Every structure is written in C-alpha cells, then in structure tokens.
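Lab notebook, page 48
Experiment: co-folding of the full assembly
Goal: obtain a model of how the components sit together before planning crosslinking
Operator: M.T.
Materials (sequences as entered):
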Amino acid sequence: MSNDLVTPDDSCGNSIRLSRRRFLQVMAGTAGALVVGIRMADAADAPLPPALLGDNFHDLGAYVRINAEGNVLIGARDPDTGTGVATALPRIIADELDADWTRVSVVPLGLGVTSNNGQPRWTYGRQIGGIGGSIPAAWNDLRQVGAVARWLLLQAAARRLGVPGDQLRCDAGMVIARDGRRFTYGELAADASKIALPTSVPPLKKPADYHLIGKPVGDIDARSIVTGLTRYATDEHYADALVAVLVHCPWADGTLAHIDSTATLAVKGVVKVVQLKPEPGQAWGNTVIAPAVAVLAEDTWSALQGRQKLKLEWKPGASGSESSYALEQQASALLAGKTDPTTRVRNDGDVDAAGKKAARRLDATYFQPWLAHATAEPMNCLVRLDKDHASLVVPTQAPQKAWAVVQRLTGLTPAQIDIKVPRIGGGYGRRLDHDYVAEAVMLAQAVDKPVRLLWTREQDLGHDYYRSGSVHQLSVTIDRKRQLLGWKQRTASASALAHRNVPDNRLWTSELQADQLPAALVPNYRSDWYALDSATPRGPARGMPHLSNAFAVESFIDEIAHSMKEDPLVTHLRVLGDPREVPLSSGGTMDTGRLANVLKLVADRIDWKNWLRTVNGLGIACWHVEGAYVAHAIEVAMQGEKLIIQRVVCAVDVGRVINPLGLEGQLAGATLDALSTALNLAITFKDGQIQQHGYKDYPLASMAQLPNAVEVIIVPDDDRPPAGASFLAMPTAAPALANAVFRASAVRVRRLPLMKELLRML
Amino acid sequence: MAPVQAQALPTNPDSGIVPEKVRDGIDLQINGEHYRHTGDPQMPLLWYLRDVLRLTGTKYGGEHGDNGADLVLLDGKAVSAIAQPLARLAGAQVVTVEGLAGNDGTLHPVQQAFIDEDAIGCGYCTPGWLIAAVELLRRKPHPGDDDIDRLPNLCRCGCQTRVRRAIKRVAAGKAGKA
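Observation: model returned without errors.
Model output:
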C-alpha cells in the first residue's frame, strides 16, 4: 500500500472509490441529538482487506460503508491498545445495523478533525482509549450510528418496493418485506447512500433483538496478528524517512554540557545529529521529556551504531539530588507530623470524637513503589511534514491531544494535520502523553525529511512519566458490636497532575478517590492528602488512583478482621452493610448489594468456607470503580521461599456486557498485570537517575510466577448500561494476594513489591 | 554452509548489455525464500527483517531481546533476532511469524489455537509467543505446565493464561475445533 499523502478534500459525492479512503462524516451527539455534518474528509489510511480494495463502497453515515457485494466496513473510533474496543465498538454499530458480522471488516478511523473557523472540530466526538470510557461513551452514541445506517437501507428498500418503511424488517444483512421479497444490503447500498440523513435518531432496537451485543466474539484483528500482518505504528514507513534514535539526558531538568559527534557522523548511513530541548513553560507530556541528542540515519542499525559512538556529558538540574528513598522518608515524616494536609479530600462526621468512644483501634501504614508503564511497543512516531500538511502515524491513546502538540509545533490548520492511529502495543496511560510526538515533529523540522522515531527499551523504562510511590497511613476505630466507628486515611505522594496546568486544589484527584471504600459506609470518615514535591516526571498510569488505595484499604480490612479474630468475609460484608444505593460525592451511587454479590461469588468459587482449614492461604478483596464492581479471591501456597499462586478467581458486575469473551480476556489480563506489578515491580532513583534499565531489573512476571488460569465470573446484568472495564480487575488483585500470603505465611506484607518484602520478612 | 561465491557472468558480445556483477553477500533462507544480504554483515537479523525486507511481524523487544517479541526460528530453534548478526547466518534457514502459515493461507495449528483461545492482548508480543510455542510443541508435542512455564516471553497485557490454554489445545489436537 502506498504511503503517499491522501489528496486533499474535493467533495466528490456520496459514492466514492474506496482507494480514496474517505468517509462521509456524521457526528452523533452524546445526548441523543444527531449532529449531521455532511462533508468529505480524509479518514483512515489503515491497511484494508485486500479482497475489498478497489471495490465501490457507499457511505451510510460517518462510520459505515457497504459495497455492492454486501461487504460492510465499519470504522473503529477509539485507539485499541489491546483492550478490545476495535472489536466491541464496531459490534455495537453492527448490531443496530443488523449486519452479518462475517461480512464486516473493521478499519481504525484515525483522528477525525476539521476546521471550524480555525478551531478544531472533532468529527467523531470523543476519541480516547484505555481509560475505561470507550464502551460507556459508545453505548450512548454509536448505537445511533448503526440505527441511522439501518434506517437509510430501509428507506432505500421502501422506495424500491413502494411500501412504507415500517412494513419492512432487517435481518443479517438483508431487508425483508412482509410478502417475503428481500434485498441484500449490497443491493441497496448505492441507493441508501443518496438518501438524506434523518433529522432525528431513528428508534433503537429492543435489547431482546440484539444478535451481536452480549455474544462472545474473538478479537477482530486476531488473524492478522497471528500471521504477523498487523502493522503497528512502529511498522509503518515512508521510503524517504530517516530513522531517529535518541539519547536522553538522565535528568529531565538537566542540560547537555558537551557533545562530540564526530565518530557518530562517520558511521555509514548516519545523516545528522540533532539536539532537542524541552520547550520552556510547556506542561509535562506536551513537549520533549528531557534534553536529548538524536541520531538520524538511513536505517535503524546505522542509527543505533551511531548512537553508541556519541560522546556526551550531561549536567544534572535540581532533580539531580532526588532519590525515591528520600522522598519516601519525607512522606513518612509528613504523615508522622502535625502539619495540615495539602487537601482534605473528605470529612464525614467527627472522626476524632468517634475515636474516644471506640472499643478498639488499629493503625497500619502501607507503601507503594514508583512504577513505570513498560509498554510492549516502545514509544515511536512516524511523521512527514510538508508546507501545508502534516501526516503522522502515532501510537496514541488520545489522538486529539497528539493533534494539539503537532498543531502547536507546526502552526498548521486543524484539517491540515492527518493523524493515523493503528493498533497499539499497550498503553496503560503512557500514551495519553505525547512527548515522543513532539520529538518526532521537531526532528522532521530539523532535517526537512520524514522521520521515523524509535525509542529503545532502556529509554522507555528510563524516561517515563512514572507513577509516584505513595505512603498510606490508615487508622480505624471499632465499637463493641464490631461496627466501624471512624476511619482515617492519610496519603502522601507526588501528584500525577503536577506540572500539567492543573489547579493546586485538584492535584489530589490522581492520588485519592473521595468515594473509595469505605467512604460513605463509615459514619466518621476523613481522608487527607499530603503533596510531595518531585522533579521526576509523572503522569497518568493504569488504574490510578484505585491501584494504590485498594491495596492499602483492602489489606487493612483484612487486618481488622484478623485483629477481631473474625472471618474477613464477614468483616467485609458488615462494612458493606445492607444492600442499598449509597450516594457518592461524585454524584453517582454505589450499590452495596452488587459489591457484596461479587465478593460472595468469588468466595463461593474458591471454597471460602474452608478458609481456616486449608493449608494454603486464601485471600479476598473487593472494590468499586465508577459504577462497576469487582472482587478477587486468591489461593496461594508457600513452598519454602517459593510463592505459588494456585488459584485466582475474579468476579465483576459491569452492567450490560458487549463482548463477554473480550471482557473475560480484559479481566484475566488486568489481573495478571496487577499480580505481576504487585509481585515484582518497582522503579527507584538515586541522584535523580532511574536505576532500572530493562526487564532484567524491572521484571514483569514470568509465566512460571503467574497462575495457570484466572477464573472469571461475569454477573449478568442487562438492565444497566455498560460500565468501563479497562483496568477494573487491577485494584483488588494485589490486596487479595497479600491477604492470601498472610494466611499462608503469617507475614503481613504492607510494602510492595511483595516478593522482595516477603523474602525480607520470612 | 559457505556463502555463495560471486561468479563471472556470461555476457552476450552482440547485445552490448553487460549484466551487473553478482555481488558478494550472505545467502540465507527466510520463510522458504532465498535472500542475499550485501550490506553490513554485523547488521542484526531483526533490522534486516524489519528495515530491509519490510517483514515487520517480528517486533523489537529490546536491545537484548528482552520480552521475546523478536523471536524467530533459526534452523528450528527459537532465538532473538536482534542477537543474530547476519554474518553468522550464511546458509541459515529462518522462519518468522509470517512464515508459520501455509502458502495457501492455512494457519499453523498454533496460530489457529491462539485465535480459538483469544490468546491476544495488544498483540505486539504475540509473534514471539507463537514462535516460542511452535518450538516447544515441536520439541515436546505434549508439554506439561512446567515446560510452558519456561517460555521466555513477557507480556504486560496478561495473555499468559490464554497462551497456556492455546498450547494445550494444540497438544490435544483441538486447534480449530470447538
């Protein structure tokens, strides 16, 4: 396939050649209003199924194209980092469309943007992947997209048959009349594409009529992935592009003191050496992450050899004296002292007065390490800049944010920037930032040629927007009836939102949840956040802020049970109380019945009633995340110093499920990710320099360390709209594991990573 | 096997066309096709596959192979492509993920089993898992959990339990069957 730029917009009518890769664009508003803006715009230039190339496709709205043979092309709006949205979102459209899934091909849409008086107008609305919002948003607006396309086909058939549209029905790619006459979608597509779009949303299907939603289906890209044909951004290429590899300054705020690139430039294939600097005043994630020297060459091997021959001296900035150890000491000192918190996140009742009436009191402090993203596909970006056009292939979770970076650096108008987003090799929040896009654009400007930027593994771990470590001090008071009277949580950490133009009074939101357990369930509850100041770059991370807090809170509830010599399941269920909807400060509610239900489900499955009798250790934990409920039960065995995770059960209630197989994979995967993180992973830094350089010292769990299976239970709950599940299974895995380890070994691990702490304490 | 020696080519004195001299190089087979590498003999196989041949199924995993995304079969053995300078590969037979399926598009049973079990996260490291699984099943058609535990691959998406199921499915002869 050619990588040449798609020719500019020339509005060629509704029926277009596929090779022009255009979509008619309709924007469906989220509130049910259909915003119809018909115009042609450049859309996905992604690899298309060869069988479809050159065929004549007809547009039925922004996301759907059908050719005469009845092949259906559906656009996937949100970047798929492995979460399955490229399968699930088109399924939602295809169901409303009554399409035959075996005839559907999915095309990643890339960024949809046009100019609106010089301002960007987002053609597809929200486009963001991997933060748990894709499915809920799609449920609101993509069903309408499918309904509009279906309505167009019905109208076309009605006109042809001379009967009213309401006397026709659709089934598996066909419109069928009462007298049995029928047309395939392929036969109707050309006519349907000429019919004016409806001014209001046609009625949506009844849930009883869904034929795809709720049915399991494998990943849409599975075949092309297992045959090695799926092209990630790092696989894309322009023939005249130079490959760029970088050396970053060890300190984000450091400077380049000396450079000698003579030997580098002598390497065959090396074209140029370019220095990069963060733009002053720009927020983290919007510009170069640290000063850097780039080697540009004709191919990767030459560039890497040239990079090895660079002679560089760096000078540290203020962060040069920072260490993760000192920051933790500082956090502990803050929590031990009497200073006021940076933010009082929640304060219900009077937690101090409640303490005076208590029969018992328990305190514990939990420690979380700094973490990296460690995506499988390192940061990379392909960019071509022309005088009035920029064309990029970017592995981004947030193409609109990538657009803003390109726009700022190039000054181009919104529609002159074309951003394609192929399938992505893992995101976990790292790709909500676009430092690598800034780097690639700056380099393309410096060499006046297309640039293919590639980070090495070492850089990827060593120059990240990390997740801050944190210290959580918990204190509970309990009355004689074993009811929790008061709960205090004090957390100290460096906010992920600092240096990102977020007001100071909102910096806590990446560190604590005002509504996290057991808030709203304990009459006297207070949570305070203490800010740590750090120059080490930080940013969005998977499961933030649930991950760190769930470990502390759910471990602590287990400790409370132990202190009362009680079954932790009983303690948990008492904290949750009767099934009811508890109002939350976010405006939503938490259903204690649904939460208790998933907890009981995992307990039953793992044979919890024998929790004291088994020689192995059992542990449980539960959590709620924006209308979704999750619980884990884990069984471990200790063989000397070896920890064996025997069984893992995960239950969730996410409301309606779009693709149960995809959800199961996502839950099993997030569980393993959380276990791997909890067992092994920590980023440390000394003199401001990250001490982990590869998987050798940032060891994702091996196959042997992980359980052989994750048993997933999905609560059928079609009465509620779907909630996001991207990281849902992460928060409860670590506390369930630590609680199980406690039962198996009598060692209470309050500091992660668990293996290191366990071996220290055994 | 020694590299093929450059030979003097016959020329037709009447045509005036002198064919280009066959250049010295490293001959190897990749997915059954013959290739001759005439560039830097120290170039690792990974960059030859990705940059020169544009066979991008084999992924960069790190400077030392790291997560196993760059595994290929070299004379039947799973090795990191980045650790194989072409100089060492004269006469070698390499199979990449693109070469696992038959020429008619029939999937290798391991590929089919990965689809059957949906053993895919983001998919970036999947080619490496496939190569490692193919090698394991060739060595040991009925691998135990201990054998599967020794696979070198890493994955943050958490495809490991589904990969395990896929390997067992192949061992049970059930790939492609319900």
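Interpretation: The first helix of chain A runs from residue 85 to 97.
Next step: discuss with group before ordering constructs.
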